[in-house]
């Protein structure tokens, strides 16, 4: 009888990218017939789910930086990517060859070298995208039809959640721009002023502390709460009854967290596929409002003034009562559908099971043929 399939998961070295791939690895182990290993560095090994074995490779980068999410402005991003490849590529080949049975590699799309390593080892490879299907399909369509266009916890309850416990239902605006999208000092100043001017209690999380936020870790005032320099439990925050809106950069992890929690968004994309995610949220699903219109690179780089921030927050929370109410109904309906998709027997779980079956087929498990996807 053939050996069971073993999947080697390789996440990118950034917490926002590590979490979804690690969750997929835990899900893969859930069927009892598939094995999984996460290949990463010692720093991220501590964040891996306890149910998944970890293979840790030593990683060294100038300044001791280990998480791309927290890389300071003066550090070289390309050098970090090069160091990650130099560490993980040979470790991946070693991890694959350590298994005598059927093996497949699942890697973050950012790790462009991983498919080559899998191919050289003679095993199947699956690319894990941290962007959504809408954005991915849009980029493929642009590439095909407009090739001249370039797409630009028994632990103590977290103090943030304790603060939210004291707020009225649906009253709080949550603002966070993810772990890798930093704002300038001028923009941070305007964002803070805009949140205060909105008149709504707010929770503002800045995962990577900057020069203007290093003087405090977290601070609560009559206006709201500011948390800087640490990770916040975003999914729990968005699921809290007090949160009524989310000012977001539209990164896909954040989009999924918000929609599954049934929370509408004020959209503020900064780069990559975030602009496509904004179009999905505002124009297609109609569960978001734009903070500002973007027609050029200059619009992206321009500082958004406090009054525009306050205006967007007002519109999101209660501006045009009927419109805001309809938006909340739509996003709550989407939340029900989203949670059902990832539940036992849901479409997302079924899709994952089919993918595992196809990978097994490549090694003689089940069907002899596999349609290349």
From TrEMBL:
<dbReference type="InterPro" id="IPR035595">
    <property type="entry name" value="UDP_glycos_trans_CS"/>
</dbReference>
<keyword id="KW-0732">Signal</keyword>
<dbReference type="InterPro" id="IPR002213">
    <property type="entry name" value="UDP_glucos_trans"/>
</dbReference>
<dbReference type="Pfam" id="PF00201">
    <property type="entry name" value="UDPGT"/>
</dbReference>
<feature type="signal peptide">
    <location>
        <begin position="1"/>
        <end position="24"/>
    </location>
</feature>
<keyword id="KW-0328">Glycosyltransferase</keyword>
<comment type="similarity">
    <text>Belongs to the UDP-glycosyltransferase family.</text>
</comment>
<keyword id="KW-0808">Transferase</keyword>
<protein>
    <recommendedName>
        <fullName>Glycosyltransferase</fullName>
    </recommendedName>
</protein>
<dbReference type="GO" id="GO:0035251">
    <property type="term" value="F:UDP-glucosyltransferase activity"/>
</dbReference>
């Amino acid at each position: 009888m053939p050996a069971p399939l073993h999947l080697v998961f390789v996440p990118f070295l950034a917490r926002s990218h590590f979490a979804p791939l690690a969750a997929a690895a835990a899900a893969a182990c859930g069927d009892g017939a598939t094995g999984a290993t996460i290949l990463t560095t010692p720093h991220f090994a501590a964040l891996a789910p306890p149910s998944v074995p970890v293979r840790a490779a030593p990683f060294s980068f100038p300044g001791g930086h280990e998480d791309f999410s927290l890389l300071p402005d003066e550090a070289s991003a390309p050098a970090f990517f090069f160091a990650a490849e130099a560490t993980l590529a040979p470790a991946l080949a070693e991890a694959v060859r350590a298994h005598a049975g059927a093996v497949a590699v699942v890697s973050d799309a950012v790790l462009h070298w991983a498919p080559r390593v899998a191919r050289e080892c003679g095993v199947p490879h699956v690319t894990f995208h941290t962007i959504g299907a809408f954005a991915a399909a849009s980029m493929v369509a642009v590439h095909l039809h407009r090739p001249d266009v370039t797409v630009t916890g028994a632990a103590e309850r977290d103090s943030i959640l304790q603060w939210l416990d004291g707020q009225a239902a649906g009253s709080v605006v949550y603002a966070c721009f993810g772990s890798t999208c930093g704002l300038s000092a001028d923009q941070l100043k305007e964002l803070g002023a805009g949140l205060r001017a909105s008149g709504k209690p707010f929770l503002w999380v800045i995962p990577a502390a900057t020069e203007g936020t290093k003087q405090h870790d977290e601070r609560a005032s009559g206006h709201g709460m500011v948390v800087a320099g640490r990770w916040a439990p975003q999914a729990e925050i968005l699921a809290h009854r007090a949160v009524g809106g989310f000012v977001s950069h539209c990164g896909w992890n954040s989009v999924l967290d918000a929609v599954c929690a049934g929370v509408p968004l004020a959209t503020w994309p900064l780069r990559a596929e975030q602009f496509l995610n904004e179009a999905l949220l505002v124009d297609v699903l109609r569960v978001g409002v734009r903070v500002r219109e973007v027609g050029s690179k200059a619009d992206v780089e321009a500082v958004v003034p406090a009054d525009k921030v306050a205006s967007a927050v007002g519109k999101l929370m209660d501006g045009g009562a009927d419109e805001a109410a309809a938006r909340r109904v739509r996003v709550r309906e989407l939340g029900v559908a989203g949670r059902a998709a990832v539940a036992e027997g849901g479409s997302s779980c079924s899709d994952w099971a089919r993918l595992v079956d196809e990978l097994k087929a490549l090694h003689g498990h089940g069907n002899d043929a596999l349609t290349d996807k």
